[in-house]
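Board work, copied verbatim: hydroxymethylpyrimidine kinase
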Amino acid sequence: MSHSPKNLDTKPAVLTISGHDPTGGAGIQADIEVLTHFGCHPCSIISCLTVQDSSTVHRLIPLKADDIIEQAKVLFDDLPIAVIKVGLTGSVDAVKAIVKIIQLHPNIPVVFDPVLASGDGTSLANIKLLDEIKNTLLPLTTVLTPNTIEAAQLSGLQHDNNEESLGKALLNTGTNYVLITGGHSPGAVLRNHLFFNHEKQITYEWERQSGHFHGTGCTLASAIAALVAQGQSIPNAVALAQTYVNQAIKLANRVGKGQLFPNRIQQ
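↓ predict structure ↓
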């Protein structure tokens, strides 16, 4: 006797393209946890492998562009992808592949967390990679979520830590929304700034949690992607995602010897 599935409701499918973190604290695994928490179906393409622990990235191993593109082709032929989330790219060739994928699907929103360094500050992007991201990927990005250091690198305003200047410069690249996060800035209050419509700004304030955390950028960008896939407007998705991340940090676990892991699957 055959049985029909009881639940035929379709979850929105979100494609995450990012690096593989063997600890599970960041990258693809973190994205999958967040997307699952928000009731989305996670699809994933690995852009690069990493040798890393909960403290630092020891080595980065790029994957071939053709393999990235081939994975995307079969996914898009099969599943109705609602949102694309991009994280660690790892190489110029990977960025070129990701840009090609996005160009083939211009109506799908793109949330990009530009991972340019590991949690301890180890650089994961050289000048050629930065230029490729700035010139080709940022103009196709719907929501960009850099921290202040990444915003300065991507905008070219290396000696300007004024969030308003950074936000406007990044909007001028063609990105629709820029959320600059303040986790790397000093002070007891953490301030994130959302820029859109050329100059409009919304500032969010959070009590800074003590400790060092692994994969918070992945968590935030994936939460925004999930909420957009669920039908939220981008400003609403940005606000709700920050509330979720703040709670995930409050409930963080010590899994390894280094940074704490946000608790992404919450009741």
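Residues 194 and 200 are 8 Å apart (CA to CA).
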